Amino acid sequence: MRLSPPVPSLLGLLLLQGVLRPLRGDLVFIPSVIRMSSPVVSASLVGGTEDVTVSLTQLRDEMGLLPVPTCGELNNETGDWSLTVTPTVNSLEVTVRLKRDLQSCSSNGTDPFLEAPCIVQALLVSAFHNTSCSAHLLIHVEIYANSSLGQNASENVTVVPNQVYQPLGPCPCNLTAGACDIRCCCDQECSSDLTALFRESCFPGVFGGDVNPPFDQLCSIQISHGVPDWFPFLCVQLANSPFLGYFYHGSISSGHQVSFDIYLHTDLKDFSDFGYKQGDPVMTVDKAYFTIPQVSLAGQCLYNAPVAFLQNFDVQCVTSLEEYLERDGITSAKIKNGAMGGIVTPKVIYEEATDLDRFITNTETLLSTGPAPRNVNVEEHYIFRWNNNTISEINVRIIRAEINAQQKGIMTQRFTVKFLSYNSGNEQEWSGNPGYQLGKPVRALSTNGTNNVTTLHLWYPAGRSLCSTATLKPILFGESVLSGCLLEVGINENCTKLRENAVELLDSLVQVTHVAMRGNSDYNDLSDGWLEIIRVDALGAGADPPDSNVSGICLDVPAQLNIRILFSDAGAVEGMTQQEILGVETRFSSVTWQFQCGLTCEDKADLFPIGASVQFIKIPAQLPHPLTRFQINFTEYDCNRNEVCWPQLLYPLTQYYRGEPYSQCVAKSLLLVSFIILAVFLSNPWIRIHKANS
């Protein structure tokens, strides 16, 4: 829509003023011209803003002439418009706002978007000293009655197609039902005239509607391009999309909130009566999933996540005490055991939490006790006993804490699930058979008989990350990690005592003497692949250095425990590489501790960080294979640089193919070659040659 003739002239004049005036230090609006398409717009007035008055005027085009702006009269209310001025640093923020509602523009409730603009006006904002005009801001108003901004969207439940077979709708940017979404060119609710306004600024990619882009291998795409003669034999005829399943498996989604159980508890398929398979959800007798809170890939806690058969997990969820809801009673749950008509009832044991600071932080002090206290579950530990494809027993240990009914704060909950064989005597399990599996705990034992620790540990801090409240977690095979906690130290701390405390905390992570070479080493047989841990003692842990009498400074304080684990490939079982541990070494690193003072050194606790690191080193080191002269000279045959990989033309016969045994690949390849030879001999040229010779 074009401006009226006088407006472009004024627009050019204001643009020229907006460029020249800041150079002279005069008052100027930035920007000096605004095209307004929303109910609110703002600009900045810079320059000498002392004793400056701002007024708003509606320009009326009569006979092609604009009236001369009048300065000196304060006018902040002009019909449907209001003007507000907010002082800022060295400038004034001027805001012009439409007072009336855009709902009045629509002729009826079913008209989502009017063809013509709802409001077309010209506004002039003037800044003046006394009666002298100093700066002008021209606002050209052109507002459409967009129901996507002014009306409420439908809250009805929308059926989402199955993402395995089709993308999430043909137009993902169509977010508002019954209204035209700006910049969404695939929105069928936008007329052609409206789409022409923003056609040059359409949303690109998948969000903009390109959910099924053609790819080079499609037969229909390559027909019109220059392609080799053999292309029709290798092109893809099936129409496919790389975005299938890109969003999530759908059934329904609500407009109010996205809840896990919205699409989880629909169309349940229960095959538990015929036995569970690994990964199958554990079912209840009510034909519902048995759920335990778990953490999604996005890091959010899903409180209605189903438990998968033979899949262990250990997660933590952070929630507010104000939003905490008690889960349904676990004691009354009846779970299918995997056999026809079989039921398992969990056996629950309750324990009281001893230290609430480990679980609840940011608490508020309550002046009155209020109602009766309530119990909250801070830890839930589930142990499933399995026998073949059935569940024989479920043991649950719940640690709960008693808090005030009106207490506020942040609570950290822990949920663990572990599947153990029905005939295992305790909760110890193999970490592999025979070699270690990635992600399984490193098995260990102590020969001094003072404890029953069976693995190496790291800190699992919570709350304030203090060492006194930190819990322990096992070291997992193949995962190099860092961990640490904070030790409270005073300014008058005895250096010898500080070293002893640090060494004691670091030694608590390694309370064992031997580590298992394999994942199935027998705990009762020390000769069954058990390696003694090599320990390098901390330096100066038992004596003070000469200058240790200085308050607030201690030398050679152990602050870091470095655990290095050497492992290597030890063969293969049924084609699977088996890995075993060759040695474990622990070494301390020391630092000089100094009390950190602020403006004054007060006698209060300082936080001294101590940490532990685990490093897995593979022996021997896997060096990259050097490039051959052929790979250097003929880069077009390099599979890592080109889309076509000719060296893998016979991929099933190479050493990289692991889908089938090598003997079966050779047999199938020979059968294919025989078919090709038979087809060649029965082809036309050979028949003509045979007839000519006969």
From TrEMBL:
The keyword Signal applies. The keyword tRNA processing does not apply. Keywords: Cilium biogenesis/degradation, Glycoprotein, Signal. Transmembrane segments: none annotated. GO terms for biological process: cilium assembly; protein localization to ciliary transition zone; smoothened signaling pathway. One of its GO terms (cellular component) is MKS complex. Residues 146-255 form the Tectonic-1-3 N-terminal domain. InterPro entries: TCTN1-3 (IPR040354), TCTN1-3_dom (IPR011677), TCTN1-3_N (IPR057724). Belongs to the tectonic family. Part of the tectonic-like complex (also named B9 complex). This is Tectonic family member 2. It comes from Bos mutus grunniens (Wild yak).
